[in-house]
Amino acid sequence: MQRDTAQRRAIRDVLLAANRPMSPQELLEDARSRVPNMGIATVYRTVKGLTELGWLVTVELPGEPQRYEVSGKGHHHHFSCNACGRVFEIHGCPSEMDKMLPKGFHMESHEVILYGRCDDCNQSRKQRG
Amino acid sequence: MQRDTAQRRAIRDVLLAANRPMSPQELLEDARSRVPNMGIATVYRTVKGLTELGWLVTVELPGEPQRYEVSGKGHHHHFSCNACGRVFEIHGCPSEMDKMLPKGFHMESHEVILYGRCDDCNQSRKQRG
DNA sequence: ATCTCTGCAAATGTTTTGCATCAGC
DNA sequence: GCTGATGCAAAACATTTGCAGAGAT
Predict the structure, then answer these.
(1) Which residues in chain A have Cβ-Cβ distances shorter than 8 Å to B117?
(2) What does B3-48 look like in DSSP terms, one character per residue?
(3) What's residue B127's pLDDT?
(4) C-alpha–C-alpha distance, residues B93 and B76, integer Å
(5) Closest nucleotide (CA of A39 to C1')?
(6) Contact B102/A87 with Cβ under 8 angstroms?
(7) Which of A16, B34, B59, B101 has the highest Cβ tally under 10 A?
(8) Is A93 part of a structural domain of the chain?
(9) Is B45 inside a domain boundary?
(10) Does the beta carbon of B129 lie under 8 angstroms from any beta carbon of chain A?
(11) Cβ contacts (< 8 Å) between B107 and chain A: which residues?
(12) Does A6 touch chain B if contact means CB atoms closer than 8 Å?
């Protein structure tokens, strides 16, 4: 990750503009509006490199491809829209999770994912009636 | 899923004995002690069939292969051991998750996954000192 | 005996890698 | 011009499917 290429700039710009975790496929589609011939391999190589640099962190949701988001946002969780498939950041954290632990188990971290409909998808449902 | 074959019996028995969600690979390894030549395709076909019958439900954890567990256990979540990689059922549910929702978002379901060390792995750490 | 189920191997879909060429420095 | 980065295509890996033969009924 030494050179500042058009492809890398495109991927960084797309991620900063979207402000939500994106999959390699989503990234490729958006980045191609800036660098039309970009290959998927470049996306994978770039997000891997940016993750090793600490500029990105991976976001893994059950049963879905790995996503990437800009790092440095502190502890947070995600909301996955059942209608449009996009994933959003959410803040806050449920408490009392340690009460769920079986005896002898020790918790080191946790993951919370909420599913439902995002604001955009709720709006368009209302508009349609 | 009409015939009662040795392969299907093996897979059902392994799942009932383990009492935790298992991946196709785990299932194959355990089931081969009963049916040595079992193929991985049979495992995939069987868990798919048992899921359609409602006898199994899928358990998907971020970044990990799909697991299967015996159904009918009611609402619960999972604990993934960072040491041995096994996944366990946990009961109870954090509250106040709706407070994490951004404006306009509507929650339909949720997923909670705790990570840490299971009882077995904590015990063996203690024994070693 | 019939027809489903199985094991193998080939196909699929996703991510990774090899390599000749391109382009940032 | 040197050498890292890219695009393409092939490889790797997990899961699914096609098919001939095995086995449950």
Answers:
(1) 105-106, 108
(2) S--HHHHHHHHHHHHH-S-B-HHHHHHHHTTTSTT--HHHHHHHHH
(3) 86
(4) 7
(5) D7
(6) no
(7) B59
(8) yes
(9) yes
(10) no
(11) 79, 114-116
(12) no
Please indicate, yes or no, if residue B37 is contained in any of the structural domains.
Answer: yes
Q: Which domain holds residue A121?
A: 77-128
Residue whose structure tokens are 């080191």: A108
Phi, psi for A128 (deg, rounded to 5): -70, -15
Predicted TM-score of the model (pTM): 0.88
Rounded to an integer, the average pLDDT of B4-14 is 98
Q: Does one domain contain both B57 and B104?
A: no
Across the interface, whether the CB atoms of A111 and B111 are under 8 A apart is answered: yes
Helix-strand-coil percent breakdown of chain A, rounded to 5? 40, 25, 40
At residue A128, the pLDDT reads 83
Report the distance from CA of residue B14 to the C1' of nucleotide C3 in Å, as an integer. 28
Q: How far are the Cα atoms of A59, B87, B120 from residue B84, in angstroms, in the given order?
A: 22, 9, 9
Report the amino acid identity of residue A47: V
Position A120 in a domain: yes
Tokens 């011939």 — which residue?
A37
Distance CA B40, CA B42 (A): 5
